[in-house]
Amino acid sequence: MLSPLHAEHLALGATMVPFAGWTMPLRYTSDLAEHQAVRTAAGLFDLSHMGELHVDGPGAGAGLDLALVGNISGLAVGRARYTMIVQPDGGVLDDLIVYRLGEEQYLVVANASNVAVVRDALAERLADVDASLTDRSLETALIAVQGPRAVEIVTGLTDPAHVEAVRDVKYYAGLPATVGGVEALVARTGYTGEDGYELFVPADAAPDLWRDLLAAGAPLGLVPAGLSARDSLRLEAGMPLYGNELDTTTAPHDAGLGRVVGLDKVDADGAPLPFVGREALAARAHATPSRVLVGLVGSGRRAARHGYEVVASTEPDAATVGRVTSGAPSPTLGTPIAMAYVTPEVSAVGTELAVDVRGRREPVRVVALPFYRRA
Fold first, then answer.
1. Which helix (H) or strand (E) holds 67?
2. How confident is the model at residue 270 (pLDDT cuts 50, 70, 90)?
3. Inter-CA distances, 265 with 45, 118, 172, 280, Å
4. What is the DSSP annotation of 81-107?
């Protein structure tokens, strides 16, 4: 599938690649330049491949409480929550952001590779509640502006009546506003470790808004940024990527995300609310994990990559103690970084380990996540 912004990417000379059934920009100039622009000024991202699933009706909140691990009905209107949809055994089908748009209106944002999986699971789990499920993924474009100058850029294009509200929108919240003459849901969640906005807009209005944002932001250092920069930015920020840190063999607790599981969800009488995966996740919450997600920092120049083995030391006969889920050189820190699942015995911060990088054992040290946190 092609993004509503496909022609804009071609006009900017982007390198296009297949991604989750879409053709998306990998980079426009260089990975390093785009990464650094987001850290120092701003980057403009096309996220139109993400899925937008609307759940509306009197039973929408209660239905999503059953379908997802988080307390969704407890969200205030205008707020958002990071949550997950899991299998009955607790394995993650996808990680999601849910926005409460109104008293009976919710927006579920799914990863591009899992839109059909999430849609089908929600349809099954909402079958007996008074709510409708509508997939508006193809009629919705999603543009993100991320970086220290993002607020200045977006508010500079915002209708004066909405500027103050857009400037003050809280983290994990969203509100309707007119930006560049386009009616948008303006959200503030982010996936880069920087401040910024996500703009959900009608697909046919996206190209004009994209060009307006580029023109307004260019004097402030904004550049278009592709999938490669997005990945290195989210890695520095210690944010999980479905298919790497999360999958159907992984429970939220494995990834250090047990906090998103609403085991404290109760009904009006104080009785525990059932949800898919509750029993399995309750057991995981009190069990010793078999693996722990950690950060690794290398002392050399060779970066660990997805799938590489983590070993106990640089010795040739050192035992395998884990596996890398994501890894790359960090443009911000100037050193190789990685996330990996390791056994609990070697998961303490400061533990010296090694990664087998194409037959050579490179020393790494366990560090706390995230690797980068903005001031």
1. helix 60-67
2. confident
3. 36, 22, 20, 15
4. EEEEEE-TTS-EEEEEEEEEEETTEEE
Q: What 3-state class would DSSP assign to 54? A: strand
Residue 36: φ, ψ to 5° = -65, -30
> Could you give the angle at the alpha carbon of 246 between the alpha carbons of 240 and 248, nearest 5°?
165
Torsions phi, psi for 297 (to 5 deg): -120, 130
CA distance 93 to 348: 28
Record the tokens describing residue 100, joined without a space.
């409460």
- Give mean pLDDT, residues 214-232: 98
Which pLDDT tens digit goes with each residue over 114-151? 999 999 999 999 999 999 999 999 999 999 999 999 99
Burial of 115-126, coded b for 16+ CB within 10 Å and e otherwise, reads: bebbbebbeebb
How many residues in total does the chain contain?
A: 375
d(C-alpha 147, C-alpha 41), whole Å: 5
DSSP state of 318: P
Q: Give the residue carrying structure tokens 């989750």.
A: 20
3 neighbors 49 (Cβ within 8 angstroms):
yes
Predicted pLDDT of residue 267: 80
> How far apart are alpha carbons 250 and 260 in whole angstroms?
14
How far are the Cα atoms of 23, 59, 100, 178 from residue 129, in angstroms, in the given order?
Answer: 36, 5, 18, 34
